[in-house]
Structures are given as structure tokens and as C-alpha cells.
Design a protein that fits this description.
Order of helices and strands: HHHHHHHHHHHHH
Helix content: over 70%
Length: 290
């Protein structure tokens, strides 16, 4: 059951990227998709967390500041950066590059604790760098095969994942992941709204587009989130993180199958290197770090 839930959660996460790619191909803006995903997700998660609602999360200055930092450099950077990367590339490529986040976490912890990476970690780092090189250049040093901004935003999204994975532990343990994600999503939507000076695009109702947006919110965000966390309860975070590698594979497959995105042999090879690097990073014996 745990494996099934995590696999389904990974596929649901991939759905959000493919649906976003569909919207961008139909001339809906990244800002519109990002804002309403964050805003609606925030409202829904707060409602789901009403039983353990705590006013303290909004009244203590230190907690409010931590929430703001988490919303800005964690959620907003991750979700907006991911959608921007999809806009410039495609769902499969953006998701694969975003999976460099575990290696960023490993490098940070090694630097922080003044320890050298282990053999498996070094090998995983070489694999992910090779994969990024192949995705970006197609093996040709003289030119970028993908958009520079696509690579930039995908790495930015990976940095956001690394940030909230490392910095949110204490506040999550105190308030619970649903309540925290609810308020952080709502706050991130407010930050985006202010940064855009309130200029969120308005689109006339179109059933397919709004159905895709609903899919991003309910399937690709809330559904995926709930399934993954429930799966972790059954099989643990380590196995779950390895099984969740199905997400970039599913994103690439659905992007190809539904949106006719074409991938070269080198890109597919790079994708496989990315998956292997994540497995190696998850399988390694982690040092005890406070």
C-alpha cells in the first residue's frame, strides 16, 4: 500500500507539470498559473487544518519571519521557478533538472559539517553534472541546446527545494505540514501578487483551461502531497524518496504522449543518469548530523 501511494503521488506530481505545459502552450501565463495554484492550495490546506488551527503561527514575530522566509525562498522559488522552467523547456526536462536538489543538499551538508563527500556521493555528483551538461548542450560545448533561462529557472527551483528541505524542519514539527504549507502557500501568493503590482492576468472562462488549472491544484498539488505523505507513513522517507523518482519519468512520458514533446537519445540518456544519481544519493549511509 505504501509503495502504491508513493508511486501514485509521484505520478500526480508529474501531472501538474504536464498540465502547466499544456496551459503555457495555449498562451496562459506562468504568473496566472503560479498565483492561483499557490492561492487556492493555501486556502484549501488551511481549511483542511482547521482542527489544529493556531493563531500563534501568525502572532509570534520569529515564527512569522520563518514562515515568510519559507514562503519566499522555499515555496515561491520552487513553484514559480518550476513553471518558468517548463515555459522555456518542457515538463520532462524541467522536472529532471529539478532533481539535482538532493545533490545540492548533500553538498551543503558536507560544507556545513566540514566533511568530504563519500564515494557514492561523489559518483552521484558526477552523474548529475554529466546529465545537466548533456541536457544543456546535447554534448556540444559550443552551444546551449535548451534555453539558458529554462536551465536557470529549473536550477532555481531545485535550490528552492533544497532550501525548504533543510530549513523547515523545526517549524513543520511545531505546527504540522498541512497548516504550514497552507499559510506559506497563501503568503507566497501574496508575495507574488505584490511583486507583480497586482497585475495578475485575467482570462475568460474556457472549460479545458480551467479544468487543467483545477487538475494542477487538486491532483498535482494537494492530491500528490497527501498521497506521498501517507505513503511515507507506511514505508519511510528513504524508500519513498527513491520510489518518487517515478515523477520525472512520468512527466517525460506524459509530455511525450499527450503533448508530442520529442526527446533525443542523449536527453533520454541524461534523464537516466539523473535517476541513477538520485538513487545513489538516497541509498548512501547518511552521517548523523544535528
Amino acid at each position: 500500500m505504501g509503495v502504491f501511494l508513493v508511486v501514485l503521488g509521484g505520478i500526480f506530481w508529474a501531472v501538474s507539470g504536464v498540465l502547466a505545459e499544456y496551459l503555457f502552450e495555449n498562451h496562459y501565463s506562468v504568473e496566472w498559473v503560479s498565483f492561483y495554484r499557490l492561492f487556492c492550495t493555501g486556502l484549501i490546506l488551511i481549511i483542511l487544518s482547521l482542527k489544529r488551527f493556531e493563531v500563534q503561527i501568525l502572532t509570534q514575530k520569529s515564527t512569522l519571519f520563518s514562515l515568510f522566509i519559507y514562503a519566499l525562498f522555499g515555496l515561491l522559488l520552487t513553484q514559480y521557478g518550476y513553471f518558468k522552467a517548463i515555459f522555456y523547456t518542457d515538463a520532462g526536462t524541467a522536472t529532471m533538472i529539478q532533481y539535482s536538489a538532493p545533490l545540492m543538499i548533500m553538498l551543503f551538508l558536507c560544507f556545513k559539517n566540514k566533511i568530504l563527500p563519500k564515494t557514492l556521493e561523489i559518483f552521484a555528483l558526477i552523474l548529475i553534472l554529466s546529465a545537466l551538461f548533456l541536457i544543456a548542450t546535447g554534448g556540444n560545448l559550443s552551444e546551449f541546446k535548451i534555453s539558458f533561462w529554462g536551465l536557470f529557472w529549473a536550477l532555481g527551483a531545485a535550490l528552492g527545494i533544497a532550501f525548504y528541505s533543510l530549513c523547515a524542519r523545526n517549524i513543520i514539527e511545531k505546527y504540522g505540514i498541512f497548516l504550514l504549507m497552507g499559510w506559506a502557500s497563501l503568503m507566497a501568493s501574496g508575495i507574488l501578487f505584490i511583486s507583480l503590482l497586482g497585475q495578475i492576468p485575467f482570462y475568460a472562462f474556457e472549460l479545458k483551461a480551467y479544468a487543467a488549472m483545477a487538475g494542477i491544484i487538486f491532483i498535482g498539488t494537494i492530491g500528490a502531497f497527501c498521497l506521498y505523505l501517507k505513503g511515507v507513513e507506511y514505508i519511510g522517507a528513504l524508500r519513498a524518496s527513491m520510489i518518487a523518482c517515478i515523477e520525472p519519468v512520468a512527466a517525460a512520458f506524459m509530455s511525450y504522449f499527450f503533448l508530442k514533446t520529442q526527446y533525443s537519445f542523449l536527453e533520454l540518456f541524461a534523464f537516466s543518469l539523473t535517476i541513477i544519481s538520485v538513487f545513489l544519493n538516497a541509498m548512501k549511509v547518511k552521517p548523523k548530523i544535528d
